[in-house]
Amino acid sequence: MMLVQSRGMIGAEAWVRDGSWQEKGLYPLQSRVWGKTAGEPALNPRFLELNNVLLQPHHASGTFETRKADMKTIVIHEARDLRIEDRDASDPGPGEVQIKIAAGGICGSDLHYFNHGGFGPVRLKEPMILGHEVAGHVTALGDGVSGLSIGQLVAVSPSRPCGNCRYCNEGRHNQCLNMRFYGSAMPFPHIQGAFRQVLVADAAQCAPADGLTPGEAAMAEPLSVCLHATRQAGTMMGKSVLVTGCGPIGILCILAARRAGADLIVATDLSPFTLKMAEAAGADLTLNMAENPADLEQFTADKGTFDVLFECSGAAPALAAGISAMRPGGTIVQLGLGGDMSLPMMAITAKELALKGSFRFHEEFFTAVSLMQKGLIDVKPFITQTFALNDAVAAFEIAGDRSQTVKAQIAFA
Fold first, then answer.
1. Exposure of 65 by Cβ count < 10 A (0-12 exposed, 13-18 middle, 19+ buried)?
2. Would the keyword Oxidoreductase be found if you checked this record's keyword annotation (predicted)?
3. What are phi and psi of 179, to 5 degrees?
4. Does position 202 have pLDDT exceeding 70, yes or no?
């Protein structure tokens, strides 16, 4: 075994505190945090990596002993700097499950990190493993785990609330003050994501996905987002619904709204390809706002038509056009994250519209898996591309191309 000499644990701590770990080509693995106090970097001198080799201190000799990492991960360093890097896999502890990831979907937030290094005030401050839409097969069970079996396909919920804060106690787990949502740069140190060949997760995160393909199971996460939005919208039976923006979330909102009893569903977008996909999802009418910007005017007579607006584009013009077509007393559910925008407040006030945000999900995840297992929601047509792990950069390049993509996935197996 090769040994890399150090100055022992005190020396390793000094490397972190004076920043010389960077000069030595060392990078911290964020599996644990050590020695952090206010104003100090949350770097861990006990777990450092040199040239894709995991370094751990050998306590008796004051040296670092090395061993090859045994899984590949997809790591974003800064905008447009995506790398496939080796990391060390771990065994499950009590109540945990080890999973060999089979499929992972690229989300809009992943694309924000890839293209822009973040979104709004959320910026990358350190390398981060991406990904939170994943499914795979159980390879090991920790002590006390029941209800799951080796080889079983599971969808893994990325929602990991603390269960103890004021919002968890109110049942608003998606608003948890200490949320550890996979692949998120909101806190620092960042929460490392699930785009890795081997993942250890709490058994409570794992929804049995028997009868589904790994790709379908990985769609449970975005479908859960839309089920939560449908809950935010309230009673859907017999309602007229407008969906603005037909990316993955818009498409799945169409499926969720129809399953909840919506009558008329109209979808708008700028891309002929995504509008064709919206038709396949069951939209009664699709409108290309790039070709005919005034198409929604037909729904503005008598103060408007739609009871519910799912705004999935994050674009101010789409929201403004949608509000003009809303009937008095309607509900706007904002899902798209495109930054702050100006709102037509006079129309919102005069029509007495309710404006609600919709952020992530929690308990809807297992329902999403169940609906797919029962054949009540079919997501397969909207998985438009699947890339090998080594082609991850190409996958990210194409994932946001709405002329040919709804949902691009990565096969990790």
1. middle
2. yes
3. -60, 135
4. yes
Q: What is the pLDDT of residues 43-76, one digit of tens each?
A: 444 344 433 334 444 344 444 444 445 899 999 9
pLDDT of residue 338: 79
Encode 107-132: b = buried (16+ Cβ within 10 Å), e = exposed.
bbbbbbbbeebbbeebebebbbbbbb
Q: Given the DSSP bridges, would you call strands 265-269 and 285-288 parallel, antiparallel or unpaired?
A: parallel
Q: Could you tell me the CA-to-CA distances from 141 to 90, 214, 269, 284 in Å, in that order? A: 12, 19, 45, 46
pLDDT at 407: 98
Calpha distance 251→312 (Å, rounded): 9
Q: Which two tokens stand for residue 241?
A: 């619904």
Give pLDDT, residue 20.
43
Q: Which two tokens stand for residue 106?
A: 């690229």
Task: Say if CB 271 and CB 246 are below 8 A apart.
Answer: yes
pLDDT the model gives residue 50: 37
- The span from the first CA to the last CA of the chain, in angstroms, equals 29
pLDDT of residue 337: 84
Among the listed residues 216, 218, 247, the one whose alpha carbon sits nearest the alpha carbon of residue 400? 247
Whole-angstrom Cα distance, residue 88 to residue 254?
A: 40
pLDDT digits (tens, 9 = 90+) for 157-200: 999 999 999 999 999 999 999 999 999 999 999 999 999 999 99
